[in-house]
Amino acid sequence: MTERIVVVGAALLDGGRLLAARRSAPPELAGRWELPGGKVEPGETPEAALVRELREELGVEAEAVRRVPGEWMLTPPYVLQVWTARLRAGSPEAKALQDHDELRWLTAGTLWSVEWLEQDVGAVREVAQALNAGVEH
Ligand SMILES: Nc1nc2c([nH]c(=O)n2[C@H]2C[C@H](O)[C@@H](COP(=O)(O)OP(=O)(O)OP(=O)(O)O)O2)c(=O)[nH]1
Questions:
Q1: Which atom of ligand 1 is least distant from the CA of 78?
Q2: Distance between CA atoms of 96 and 87, rounded to whole angstroms?
């Protein structure tokens, strides 16, 4: 049996913008941009992991909205799955509390101005379509 561990990435959308986060560690990923998120823990749903990770990493109260089609292989046993997400009413603003040293809200026009992790490019392309269409869910 092959063990697979899902890493959930959040395409957090707000006002037609997508939140990108610059990793501060480990050294081989530091400086590259990703969708905030992390590993789904045993017995946890990806949606619950997304809420937990965004609370820990960004200090926000968010909710998963819909799965972005596709799945991207990371270093085995990890696979990246992405959900769009939104801030709940009254959520604090996102801050780089953990794992990241900079956050940037990107519009459709500035989406490719940051150096995304290669394994995130496919997911970001999918999200770009929603941004271009002006759809937030
Ligand atoms: N969070 C996140 N991780 C990604 C993305 N793309 C990508 O290759 N990864 C990799 C980096 C890490 O090796 C792994 C996720 O690890 P993480 O460090 O974010 O997860 P975590 O918060 O659960 O970390 P930990 O409990 O192991 O400290 O997936 C992405 O878009 N978001």
A1: 29
A2: 16
pTM of the model: 0.94
The predicted structure's pLDDT at residue 111: 97
Q: Tens of pLDDT along 30-65?
A: 999 999 999 999 999 999 999 999 999 999 999 999
Distance (Å) from CA 12 to ligand 1 centroid: 16
Q: What is the ipTM of this complex?
A: 0.90
CA of 134 to the centre of ligand 1 (A): 28
CATH entry, 5-133, from 3.40.190.80, 3.90.79.10, 3.90.600.10, 3.40.50.360: 3.90.79.10
Cβ burial 76-113 (10 Å sphere, 16+ → b, else e): eeeebbbbbbbbeeebeebebeebbeebeebebeebee
* CA-based nearest residue to 3, from 107, 93, 76: 76
Report the alpha-carbon distance of residue 128 to residue 109 in Å, rounded. Answer: 10
